[in-house]
Give the backbone structure.
Amino acid sequence: MINGSKVLDHPIRWAMVGGGKGSQIGYIHRSAALRDNNFQLVAGAFDINPERGMAFAAELGVAPDRCYPDYKTMFEEEAKREDGIEAVSIATPNGMHYTVCKAALEAGLHVVCEKPLCFTSEEAEELVALAKEKNRVVGVTYGYSGHQMIQQARQMIQHGDLGDIRVINMSFAFGGYNYKIEETNPAAKWRFDPTKAGPSFALGDVGTHPLFIIEAMIPDMKIDNLMCTKDSFVEGRELEDNAFVIMRLKGSKSVQEGAKVYCWASSINCGARHGHKIRVVGSKASIEWDDERPNQMTYEIEGEPVRTLERGAGYLYPEARVEDRIGGGHAEGLFEAWANLYRRFAVAMDAANNGEEYGDFWYPNVESGAQGVKWIEKCVESANNGACWVDYE
Ligand code: NAI
């Protein structure tokens, strides 16, 4: 049970690049990081518009002399201070992630980076190597993976409760982008501009979320090859607003050779809110989880009535209960899931600072970010070549 008690000697001195006023994702970063006193927000380059960033910093209680016009100035100036920043979160549009992440690592900072980590596998490999060389943590905010039922699924699969995994049917297929929303919504506009969003919209913006969740549920999962088809149903879009991917998996301890994963990533699923659901089918039983009802997961053993597992319940595996923040029956949500990840990032950062191992837990790290980038690349390659099968390795 997490109860707010002190985990680190001192809170990590932390800054943000992006996540300014009115941004979609800035608030949940701050809320998650500050929840357990593991981070202290002391500096920032919050906005593409420095004046707006300065005004927002004042609202957040960041000292005016530590609010900077851009990330480069921030890294330079903070390095001169004895109490300079130790970690930075990057919550800008995708096109900045690689440059800012690289600069932060070179400045000796730990990083929390939004997904997708960067645009190409080459860039991703460079960041993986740099993080290792500098002994710095790079956490990637695949926020939904912090929900406790994901831990439960991971334990159930590891303990063989489902048998061998044969099929995974997953989607992140939301509605709302079924018309030219980018004409009036700035956060939607950059998402369809390849110079700012990268080589994909739907696959990168939403498809990578269930991808990381199944990687977390099944750590020994390996993609053998995949095929993808993508479309821009709304006229004039440079990037896809809908995509389907089929993946063939290699055999492993938990996975039957030739198992299939089917993924639907969409922004034009009229009427759906998130449509973010994952069903894992094994040789004995299936589980199903939906991000809009994250405290529950169905467990369906062939020939028996459907069971609904509840967060916080005593029958869950212990690993699925260590991050309880309140007893079962009370609804925990996305903010708690993100806070769980930020807590794990903090513990890993502290361990790296002290040259220690951080113990038996996982978090979406720089390799997870690189995996997402590679997956997008392979999907785009397949789709651009008539939805052909593409080898993954
Ligand atoms: P947004 O467009 O709403 O906000 C972007 C923010 O970054 C704004 O405050 C803007 O002023 C600032 N910014 C832009 N360029 C900057 C620069 N050079 N220096 C400093 N600040 C700069 O975008 P949104 O939706 O918040 O997305 C940001 C990132 O978060 C994207 O990479 C997106 O993929 C990711 N995201 C992740 C989610 C998740 O579940 N992990 C959910 C939503 C977005």
